[in-house]
Request: fold
Amino acid sequence: MATGMILGAIRKRTVLVSASQFLFLSTSRFASTLVIAEHEGGVIKAPSVSAVVAAKSLGGDTPISLLLAGSGPSLHEAASHAASCYPSISKVLVADSDKFKNPLAEPWAKLVHLVQQKGDYSHIVAASNSFGKNVLPRAAALLNVSPITDVIGISESHTFVRPIYAGNALCTVRYTGANPCMLTIRSTSFPVPKNSVDSKSNEAPISQVDLSTFDEDLGRSRYVSHTSQDTERPDLGNARIVITGGRGLKSAENFKMIEKLANKLGAAVGATRAAVDAGFVPNDLQVGQTGKIVAPELYMAFGVSGAIQHLAGMIDSKVIVAVNKDEDAPIFQVADYGLVGDLFEVIPELLEKLPEKK
Ligand SMILES: Cc1cc2nc3c(=O)[nH]c(=O)nc-3n(C[C@H](O)[C@H](O)[C@H](O)COP(=O)(O)OP(=O)(O)OC[C@H]3O[C@@H](n4cnc5c(N)ncnc54)[C@H](O)[C@@H]3O)c2cc1C
Reply:
């Protein structure tokens, strides 16, 4: 009798929810997202800002913490910039140590593991660039969860769209594993809105990550050196215009025409894997399935056949222009403007007609 009364009292105050609602409530109640971010020159790198945009679309009010690591003044400048300029960031976590001075994935993965143990985030997001692709799966292994990579769409907090078969099909994936749900996102699919950088009235708090329990052992990895191209051209992953050369250029010497054209247009230079394998340019210029994914406003391809693995990296470009002497080249099937012609005639003509960049 007493039990029945208690149950009755409880029932009056209990809101019954369906199983799916319960799953949603139980996963969203403490929803919070950690974005793993890169910085350079005192600001957050563009792909990491796209990761914040993706994190925002996981759920309107979900708090977003940004994790930055490194050492020196530029780390703290980047933290202040993130805290004051991005309205969707609610907290900035800073791991200030020489251990993160070099871009090694091992200490970063351990850092993410440490931060997750303290923060119990429901989601961890990073950009799907070489940094994110290196760090996130290692961190996921330490946390014993399966990451979802290359996400291009977020339907709801645990349902994502990602390409498969070199971008020939899209699949919708529902994450049903334990927290955290770990994602790498394609930055080209989460463009940064113009108003996303804004001085906000309330700066997000910045806190230091307690590294007293950090395990410094790097295992078999060792930092050797870091080289990067010294160029004033825009970064390939974020450029508004990309000029790409393929095997049709025939030599590294001829490939300089592509560079000249890019300089005139203020564009980034891209290359096919065949051009990279032939030694025309270094492999950090490779666009495609096993290279960089780009989606510029204008993509110009010279002497590129349009193999499926190349298309996987540039198909989302807004306007595609192709120059190829073979009218049956597959690149023409995706090109908005196609010119059947010899690139050794077309590029010099373009160089002559285009004005010098101011
Ligand atoms: C697992 C895997 C991953 C891969 N990942 C990538 C990747 O990330 N990126 C990538 O690009 N490829 C990738 N590839 C390679 C891909 O399959 C193609 O081999 C490569 O993209 C071809 O490069 P290309 O178009 O420069 O060369 P080709 O296919 O040799 O095409 C050269 C083109 O130049 C044209 N041409 C020649 N001379 C002239 C001229 N004078 N004027 C105008 N046109 C001319 C020809 O008509 C031809 O269409 C991958 C392959 C595999 C198996």
